[in-house]
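Design job #97: recover the sequence.
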């Protein structure tokens, strides 16, 4: 499992402001949503903002997410950070602010803070009825087809977070974390951005927490089955069912886990692969780090 800060664990076990928001509040108040990701591509976040129209102040924020421990904690942290701010003030919140609020995130989990920042921007731009900034559209070249990450998004992450390695780009965006065929392109793009020089924000400190996998006594197969069932029942199936899909545990043999995807999750081969990866990440974090998930 990852070495999370106490704040991350607290917000994971006791998330604040989780759940949908009533879309029809009183006069003078508007509720908008910002969506990032796709449930069939792994992580997904929907952020709700309740905004006082006269002042553009965020009166309340809430979230729904399909993601790992750090995605839930990052989303919860974001809602606490922005409540009470004006929209202009909220637009200045960075993914680094979210990570700092949590006492740091493991480097490989920084993409969760990026997802929060992007959902916030999406909600505010939707509120104002203007197109999203260029970094979120698809006009630039697609660098990583496995995770749908564009050149402009990678450029922005490299500039704003002072990234210098492919591994860092993967940690912040997931780009390169699938088939690996885009790794050379990412490396070239990093070199190009660094050669262009300049950055939009001050230099940031290194992430506080190194990635560590805790070792403990191996689980028995029965214990693994019980833990996997609990994670699936409590965290995965409710979200999939709400989206027309479902999953069931088919078999466990050592560290190999077979899952049967059902409903909408079976609609195409690629969605099965990405969904498998998302569930695998969650099971590795919460059950046993060596687990490998297969779809049957
Ligand atoms: S194209 Fe980027 S990991 Fe596959």
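Job complete. Output follows.
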């Amino acid at each position: 499992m990852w070495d999370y800060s106490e704040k991350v664990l607290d917000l994971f076990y006791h998330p604040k402001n989780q759940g949908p928001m009533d879309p029809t509040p009183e006069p003078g108040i508007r509720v908008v949503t910002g969506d990032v990701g796709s449930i069939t591509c792994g992580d997904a976040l929907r952020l709700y903002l309740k905004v006082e129209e006269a002042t553009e102040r965020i009166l309340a924020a809430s979230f729904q997410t399909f993601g790992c421990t750090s995605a839930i904690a990052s989303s919860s942290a974001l809602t606490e950070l922005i409540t009470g701010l004006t929209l202009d003030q909220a637009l200045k919140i960075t993914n680094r602010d979210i990570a700092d609020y949590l006492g740091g995130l493991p480097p490989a989990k920084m993409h969760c803070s990026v997802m929060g920042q992007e959902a916030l921007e999406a909600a505010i731009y939707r509120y104002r009825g203007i197109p999203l900034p260029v970094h979120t559209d698809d006009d630039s070249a697609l660098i990583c087809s496995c995770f749908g990450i564009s050149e402009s998004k990678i450029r922005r992450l490299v500039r704003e977070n002072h990234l210098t390695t492919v591994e860092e780009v993967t940690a912040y965006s997931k780009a390169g974390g699938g088939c690996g065929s885009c790794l050379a392109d990412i490396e070239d793009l990093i070199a190009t951005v660094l050669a262009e020089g300049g950055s939009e924000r001050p230099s940031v400190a290194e992430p506080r927490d190194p990635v560590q996998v805790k070792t403990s006594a191996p689980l028995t197969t029965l214990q693994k089955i019980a833990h996997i069932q609990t994670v699936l029942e409590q965290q995965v199936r409710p979200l999939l069912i709400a989206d027309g899909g479902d999953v069931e545990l088919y078999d466990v043999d050592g560290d190999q886990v077979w899952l049967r995807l059902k409903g909408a999750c079976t609609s195409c081969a690629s969605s099965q692969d990405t969904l498998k990866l998302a569930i695998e990440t969650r099971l590795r974090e919460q059950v046993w780090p060596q687990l490998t998930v297969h779809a049957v």
